[in-house]
Design goal:
Mean pLDDT of chain B: 81
CATH superfamily of chain B: PhyR, sigma-like (SL) domain
Distance between the termini of chain B: 64 Å
Largest sheet of chain A: none
Order of helices and strands of chain B: HHHHHHH
Low-confidence stretches of chain B: 89-94
Order of helices and strands of chain A: HHHHHH
Strand content of chain A: under 5%
CATH architecture of chain B: Up-down Bundle
Radius of gyration of chain A: 63 Å
Number of strands of chain B: 0
Shape of chain B: globular
Low-confidence stretches of chain A: 43-52
Number of helices of chain B: 7
Distance between the termini of chain A: 113 Å
Strand content of chain B: under 5%
Largest sheet of chain B: none
Oligomer: heterodimer
Chain lengths: 245, 175
């Protein structure tokens, strides 16, 4: 349970700590401000209340017409002689038309504009949703293609890498084998040289030992008082004599 | 109708609303749509009633809209059988392990929030992300304080159960 609580807290803090880009982008703010002003968000209530709608205007117009009719009827009833209806209509029509027509036209235009705006907003949402869906499916397909392509490329690169590593290993083994062979050859040469050197050294040492022995014998012979005069021919220190012997 | 200086409201509360919607949705396109919807909804509300606390109203509306969009997105992704968000697919250079883990946890929490009933999800988000008190949440949702507490308790329990597989996965990874 404690673990679960920990994971919930961890998840909440992870979501809280996720980086959020600073503020909404300027175009989003401008778009929202525009939408708000289009929807009448910047219009003060006093001004809005001054703007009559079509129904209230129709009511006022109807009341005015009724008043006029009532006034006309009262005038006709009280008048000693009935006025000429056609003349009265001709007199009233231009003034009524002049007073009512622009306002009604304006109201109708406003109403039409409003309904167009609503219709546009509805279709806008629909189009946006459709485009969003289309975009999402396109992006999915595109993403899948990219993933597949990247997978293929990665496989190819890995194969190439493995081949390169194999080739490098083979080269390295060949090189090591050649080096070992060369080392063995060198060792054998060194061994034979050493052997020759040792044989030469042994021979020379043997030679030198024999000579030293002879020299010692001569020396002992000379140091004895009753020894005869040594024969020059027996002097082995003389190299020429030694060579002759 | 109440006289409102919308540019001022937009500049004052816009960043907060943006933060709320972006945190819940995790991408800029959805956040921008939700941001716009939030302010249009606030305009409608201000036409119908007097708004005393714009910050709270916008936080509630933004949370609600973002959760709706999150639910919609999750449903669509389940229907189409595609990942909820391509941005969540790990890139070639994922970075440190903890960062990836935190991102996955956040994504799981988003998915779990989308699965919750809207009111519970709203209450949870207002509590955890907007730091509202139980009383404020109750006031914003139009319910009693006790009911807000119950909603939050239910939301937490369900979210823990939804996140349980993550705990199991973590344990397996550690072993």
């Amino acid at each position: 349970m404690k673990k679960k609580r920990d994971i919930l807290n961890k998840a909440v803090s992870a979501l809280k700590n996720q980086p959020v880009p600073d503020g909404p982008p300027a175009e989003v703010i401008n778009g929202v401000a525009e939408k708000l002003s289009e929807a009448g968000g910047d219009v003060s209530p006093a001004r809005r209340s001054e703007k009559p709608n079509l129904i209230s205007f129709a009511k006022v117009a109807a009341a005015a017409v009724l008043l006029i009719i009532a006034g006309y009827a009262a005038g006709r009833l009280t008048a000693p002689r009935p006025p000429d209806l056609r003349q009265l209509q001709q007199e009233l029509e231009p003034s009524l038309r002049a007073s009512l027509q622009p306002a009604i036209r304006q109201e109708l235009l406003d109403e039409l504009k409003k309904s167009w705006r609503l219709a546009w907003a509805g279709s806008y949402v629909q189009i946006k949703d459709e485009l969003g869906r289309q975009f999402s499916s396109d992006m999915t397909e595109f993403g899948a293609q990219i993933l597949a392509a990247s997978g293929r490329i990665t496989d190819r690169r890995l194969t190439e890498l493995i081949e390169a590593i194999d080739a490098a290993q083979i080269n390295e083994r060949r090189w090591i084998a050649a080096a070992l062979e060369q080392m063995e050859l060198n060792r054998l040469q060194d061994k034979s040289r050493l052997m020759n050197g040792l044989v030469t050294l042994a021979a020379q040492t043997d030679d030198e030992l024999a000579r030293t022995k002879q020299d010692m014998a001569q020396f002992l012979f000379y140091t004895r008082p009753d020894s005869p005069v040594p024969d020059e021919s027996d002097n082995t220190n003389n190299l020429s004599e030694r060579g002759k012997k | 109708m109440q006289a409102i200086d919308w540019p001022l409201v937009l500049s004052k509360h816009g960043p907060g609303v943006w933060k709320t919607v972006y945190r819940l949705l995790g991408n800029e396109a959805d956040a921008a749509d939700c941001f716009q919807e939030t302010f249009m909804c606030a305009l409608e509300v201000s036409r119908q009633q007097r708004v005393r606390n714009f910050s709270a109203l916008l936080a509630r509306v933004a949370t609600s809209r973002a959760i709706n969009r999150l639910r919609q997105r999750t449903r669509e992704s389940q229907r189409n059988g595609e990942p909820a968000d391509w941005a969540m697919v790990a890139g070639s250079n994922p970075g440190p392990f903890e960062q990836v883990q935190a991102r996955e946890l956040a994504a799981k929490l988003r998915e779990a929030l989308a699965e919750l009933p809207p009111q519970e999800a709203e209450a949870f988000c207002l509590r955890c992300f907007s730091d509202m008190s139980y009383r404020q949440i109750a006031k914003e949702l139009g319910i009693k304080t006790n009911a807000a507490g119950i909603l939050l308790h239910r939301a937490r329990t369900k979210l823990r159960n939804s996140l349980e597989p993550v705990v199991v996965e973590e344990n397996e990874v550690r072993q």
